[in-house]
UniProtKB/TrEMBL annotation:
This is VWFA domain-containing protein. PANTHER family: BLL2462 PROTEIN, VON WILLEBRAND FACTOR TYPE A. Residues 320-440 form the VWFA domain. It comes from the Bacteria. It comes from Lysinibacillus xylanilyticus. Pfam families: VWA_2, VWA_3.
Amino acid sequence: IAESLQSKKDEQLAGIYSFSSTLQTEAILSDSLKEVPKFTAIKATDQTNIEQSLQLASGIVDPKKATRLVLLTDGNETKGDALEFSSKFKGSNISVDVVPFNKPVAKDVSLKSFVTPQVAYVGEQQQLVTEINATAAERGELLLYENDKLIHREAVELAEGSNIFTYKHSATAEGLVKYEALVQVEQDAIFENNKLTSVTMVQSEPHLLIVNGYDTASPIAAALGKQSIAYDVVNANSLPNELSSYLQYNAIIFDNVPGHLVGEAKMSVIEQAVKNFGVGFTMVGGENSFGLGGYFKTPIETLLPVEMEIKGKEQLPSLGLEIVLDRSGSMSGAKLELAKEAAARSVEMLRDEDTLGFIAFDDRPWEIIETGPLGKKEEAVDTILSVTPGGGTEIYGSLAKAYENLADLKLQRKHIILLTDGQSQPGNYEDLIAQGKENG
């Protein structure tokens, strides 16, 4: 008030009035007021009528002149409606500015937040997290309730500021559960801020499908056996073909499962279950998982947050790959189609600057793609997929040709992949393999 009076212009009028249930004059409205007078005592302090005080103050001023009423108050009125009355000043020369006074809070403890899971399962360890604010260090007690039944009581030491407490709890029944947190201390200014509630939807226990690769015991199943989680363990070869068979599960876990045991058709069904029906999916790493497991460019790859293709290829060594494919009569049908698909997938993993050669053989080797820089990858893949079955089988001569193609090339890594059912004439494979190892 004193600062405002000092900055007042000489021609401006100012007056000071105090009020409780009625308005009383401390300094009449004039242009000579320069200092704040000593306030007179107010007899009746048990009531506050802001509306009446505004009405009387507005009657003192000249309605034709611009007037500003500055109201200093804590806003706790017991009579009248100041807000409604202030609306009458709209369109007039009178404006009202309010300077609120907040009553200083003594020692107070309050619950700032109480967080529980939105969804939980029967038997699952939920985390009930309570944040308590204290204006000063204090000792108290934290109580937690589930559907109005006390489930936890804890003595707490509260430091000034924020204090966080976490309690683990397992629900035993399905349905919407109301949790309540209550903090109690001896001295507390505001009791109304000591309680918060939260709700959690508790569902029946989850049902998981754990898929193994080679009939081995799953450490995941062993770990889950100690939890309140239902699960089925199946071998990848026994996975169902029907979408409905997967929808009974909350999530599917592939435990080091190679892709060829699952197959493209079942992968597509699992993809539908995950993308369209919200079934969870997890792949556990290992020598038969991710890129090593043959999931590159498969429906399963689209479900995962990782890519199967190797990044940072500029750091990879130069590579030469010779694919030798058996197209004999014994390979006709599904075996040849799978072999071609495997060969095509291998090519898709190569860089354009890698070296590729492709030999398809029956009773003799046929050099379908001459050994050299890969270049146009899509054309190479189409060429491989167009191979048709032939007659007899000559593995050794075909492998020897592949070795010959790679032997003199200046490459850091050289690989030969043989795709066959193994029905062939005998040959000196040991010597050929030894030569290959010797020459890198």
